[in-house]
Amino acid sequence: MIYIKRAKAIYAEKRNTVKNWKGALQGHPAFIVGCGPSLEDVSLDPLLSYFTIGINRVYQKDKFDPTILFWQDLEFWKTEHKKVPKLKAIKFTRSLTDPKDIAYHFNFKSGPFMLPISASTLYGSGASAPLSFELASALGCDPIVFLGTDCKYRKKKTNFYGVNADHKPHTLTRCTKGLNWIQAWDKKGKHKIINCSDNDILPNKMSLEDAIEYVKEVCGDFGQPKGRDFYASRLMKQKC
Questions:
Q1: CA-angle at 72, arms to 80 and 131, nearest 5°
Q2: Alpha-carbon Rg for the chain in angstroms
Q3: Could you identify which of 30, 100, 119, 162 might form a hypothetical disulfide with 21, taking C-beta atoms 3.0 to 4.6 angstroms apart as the criterion?
Q4: pTM tops 0.85, yes or no
Q5: Alpha-carbon distance 126 to 171, whole Å?
Q6: What would the pLDDT profile of 189-200 be if each residue is shown by its tens digit?
């Protein structure tokens, strides 16, 4: 009984923490780093002190440890369950894909992609880039910079590290649909989108180096790298 009460208390605390993420990084840039083949062309070292949302196995690139590690599939956990707990990243996923309860959780609603009211509920399915965009939007981040979100193969490579055994036929279609949905928000002026990936869907295509210079220019002090502890403290509501 004591164990059950303690487990429920921890779950409630995590749930409330995620709800409090709304607007926690208002005005700070976010770098969303996917696992597309183009990621092999760029060094992620310049992002070490920025706020980053890394998707799935992104940590295999340059031993990159993002601020938040995002995943949504149980297949990912089955192959990576020994590596993920060792990362410093804040883990963020669905409860069903977190058997060891090491992560913060979001509720998942299938259907069309939608900008969420808070980070506790994300909308859509089949592609992690638009869900990560939803998360960044809920946090209040702007601009939002995309790397490794290609939605296409490079020869036979599905990802920067080679072939993802869990890759599904519908992945590219859903990914492309998600990118088209994202670019619409740039047109509406809701978010400034920067495209450092190998796709022709997202606007404002530029190199990572130019993207970093851009966020420094438009975000002022918020565009300067603050370090992992700063961003984590904002999310966890601790004093910096």
A1: 135
A2: 17
A3: 119
A4: yes
A5: 6
A6: 999 999 999 999
